[in-house]
Amino acid sequence: MFVVYPDDEKVFEMKDQYFVGNSLLIKPIVKHLLKFIFQEMRRDIFQKFSRQNIRGSSSTMHLDPLALVIALNENSEAIGFLYLDDGETYDYEKGCFVYRQFTFSAGKLTSKSLSSLDNDKNILCQVN
Prior knowledge:
Layout: E1 18-20, E2 24-26, E3 78-84, E4 98-105, E5 108-113
Antiparallel strand pairs: 1-2, 3-4, 4-5
């Protein structure tokens, strides 16, 4: 947490939660049969999600549709990045991957490719 918030001394001692990148806060549940956890959250990053179903194993997840949850900040805006490859081969070295930036601002979701290759034309998207 201190890498993302180096000016906030309260986060220096938080050793049981961490960021992946600069926008995904992780706090693993590490005790068997634990029903809930207390997670320290800064006011500027808090978004509450509950009743999310955990589905399948990683070997079956490639069959599931991909859902992006967009958590808006206090200004009703968000920015995030998505990288996808097949997860098995080194074909990403040949440009077989998707790297996109998603932006939500003024009530509009936009997406643009961050790859130098035009390799993600065949992405099917459904917005609910």
